[in-house]
Amino acid sequence: MIKTEPPVTAPILPLDRRQLLKGGLLGAGLAAAPLCAAGGARGFTHGVASGEPGASRVLLWTRYAADQDVPLTWEMSETASFASPVASGSVTASPANDGCAKPWADGLAPGRWYYFRFTAPDGSHSDIGRTRTLPEGPTARWKMAVFSCSNIGFGWFNAYAHAAATNEFDCTLHLGDYFYEYGQGTYPSESEWLGTRAPLDPQSETVALAQYRARYAQYRSDPDLRRIHQIYPMIAGWDDHESANDSWEGGAQNHQSETEGEWSVRKAAAMKAYREWMPVSDENWAEYEIGDLATLFRLETRLSARAQQFDYGTLLRGMASPEQGVAALTAFREESYRDPTREVLGAAQQAWLGNGLMRSAKGGKTWQVLVQQVLMGKTASATSLTDALPQGLPDYIMRRVVAGAIASRAGLPLNMDAWDGYPAARARLYEAALAADANLVSLAGDTHNAWAFDLAHEGEKVGVEFGGQSVTSPGFEGYLPQLAPGDVSAAMVARNPELKWMDASRRGYMAVELTPTRATSEYRFLSSVREKGPEVVATKRLSTLAGARTLDLG
After folding, report:
1. Residue 350: enclosing H or E segment and its boundaries?
2. What is the spatial distance between Cα 112 and Cα 78, in angstroms, rounded to a whole number?
3. Which of 11, 35, 160, 513 is most exposed, with the fewest beta carbons within 10 Å of its own?
4. Is the peptide bond before 202 cis (omega within 30 degrees of 0)?
5. What backbone torsions phi and psi does residue 118 show, to the nearest 5 degrees?
6. Alpha helices, DSSP H only, in 437-484?
7. Which band of pLDDT confidence, cut at 50, 70 and 90, is reported for residue 396?
């Protein structure tokens, strides 16, 4: 074991900073390598990463660019000197997988930090990475940095930089929108693009496999993203932008078959590139056991079973007045909206989750945590906000605001792309959690804003949800800049009984900590993403007691 660590029954302490410096994990050891896509570089080009942690194994990742298959060796050690490796093996970096290599390291001890590196036939080494296995038995705490929605054009990845610099986490979670598929000048527009960021690679929208690969290469060249992968294992799942905006099983809002080909081809390309470039298994969903403390359930809510989203623009087309719109949406609410056949998870994943929740709760685990993408909490538009809007807003904003107000009057939610758009599927998940007597905690991203919900089903408490703010992508402050963020938050909380708190304007990440008595999210807000620097200027801590299934707002 690493001598600086306490037993796994005690809180996990960070490794000594001197060890990190010696191992090349901080400072000069993380200097960005030249990119193959940007200059024809060969060799180790994008650092290292790890993921899919278990009690005795972890998945390692690196990229070695070459024109032919290259055999690599890897080794793991309890010290950064690699004087006495505890595990080793070989893996092939192949152009067929864009040079990405992903071996499993097995036979490890539970609850331990390890160093790892790769070596090429010429003797060159990759960066040294650090990873850890999951604990077994009594576990006093587990702490995770939780990210989502990192659009490179909107700003610097200061959230990654801050989480890496604190050196306080056991692992990281990425809840999706790890990158964005749009072409240059779309989102962000050219006027919104941060000038100190390089233009997108490719400049076009990512549709084909080579384009998705090039976009990953650009994102993974960012030193802060490279650093966070280097020093923590990551549990990650895709949302929509890793393929195309508002994707579902059979298509996407941002996919036009007439010009971009068959959706199935694009979806397969997006999935392949993700699995090449990310330290993830090929399993669409998975669970992770955190000793006797928790089970994390990584869900897939986009590409395997999700039904197509309802669209208010289509539902309200041809309506001559708000009253007609309310009447049409009220009828829709009682019919198609409640369709029990509409899926998010699908039957196979739902059965797996139900069994897992039951097994975890009955087995004595304190927490059952959903690592997933979109909000579960019920959220309707605050109609009071429409009265506060100034004259002269752009038509596209007014159309969205008016549609949201009409939907709210008809008893329908703000966002049909969230679980709100699939009430029968959400009810199935809630009923499984209640049947298991689970202490449910949902972690969600997608919206770019910070939220905290009490979750309920037919009068019964189900659990809580921590919805995380984005790394860089703008939220309500970009959509409705005419309104004070505090007014937006207050109006949304007043309108929605399940919503207990929100922040409508700031970027950052969540620090989520689990203990045997409490689950806590500390929302960390950054001073800016338009300037480089990981300064946190505000925090908000919310928690729930084990067994309470409601947020403690005190």
Report:
1. helix 347-362
2. 8
3. 11
4. yes
5. -115, 150
6. 476-479
7. confident
Residue 210, pLDDT > 60, answer yes
What the block records as the tokens of 314 is 């289509």
Q: Distances from the Cα of 289 to the Cαs of 105, 136, 297, in angstroms?
A: 18, 8, 9
Per the listing, tokens 């690196």 go with: 62
The single residue listed with the structure tokens 């942690």 is: 53
Burial level of 21, CB count in 10 A (0-12/13-18/19+)? middle
Distance of CA 181 to the CA centre of its chain: 16
**Percentage with pLDDT > 90 across the chain:** 85
In terms of DSSP bridges, do strands 43-51 and 440-444 run parallel, antiparallel, or are they unpaired? unpaired
Token pair, residue 11, equals 């809180």
In contact, 291 and 134? CB cutoff 8 Å = yes
Q: Which is higher by pLDDT, 222 or 37?
A: 222
Q: What is the pLDDT of residue 552?
A: 94
d(CA 489, CA 15): 39
**Cα 443–Cα 448–Cα 452 angle in degrees, nearest 5:** 45
Q: Residues near 272 by Cβ (< 8 Å), separated by ≥ 6?
A: 209, 212
Neighbouring-strand partners of residue 440: 368, 463
Element (H, E) at 443: strand 440-444
Calculate ∠ Cα 276-307-318, nearest 5°: 125
Q: Is 388 exposed, middle or buried (0-12, 13-18, 19+ CB in 10 A)?
A: middle
Per-residue DSSP letters for 255-314?
--HHHH--HHHHHHHHHHHHHHHSS--S-SSEEEEETTTEEEEE---SSSSPPPPP-HHH
Q: Burial, 537: exposed, middle or buried (Cβ in 10 Å; 0-12, 13-18, 19+)? A: exposed
- Token duo for residue 90: 């070989």
Task: Look at 76-90, 170-184, 468-482 and tell me which has the smallest mean pLDDT.
Answer: 468-482
Phi–psi pair at 526, nearest 5 degrees: -90, 155
What is the rounded distance in angstroms from the CA atom of residue 18 to the CA atom of residue 233?
A: 20
Mean pLDDT, the chain, integer:
92
Query: Amino acid identity, residue 11?
Result: P
The first and second tokens of residue 517, run together, are: 């008595």
Q: Which of 138, 146, 116, 139 is nearest to 129 (CA)?
A: 116
Query: Token digits for 97?
Result: 């997988």
| Integer Cα distance of 270 and 327 in angstroms | 40
**In 3D, which of 146, 532, 120 has the Cα closest to residue 369?**
146
CA gap 285, 303 in Å, rounded: 12
Task: Return d(Cα 153, Cα 148) in angstroms, integer.
Answer: 15
Query: How far, in Å, CA of 84 to CA of 105, rounded?
Result: 16
pTM score above 0.90:
yes
Whether 472 contacts 152, CB under 8 Å: yes
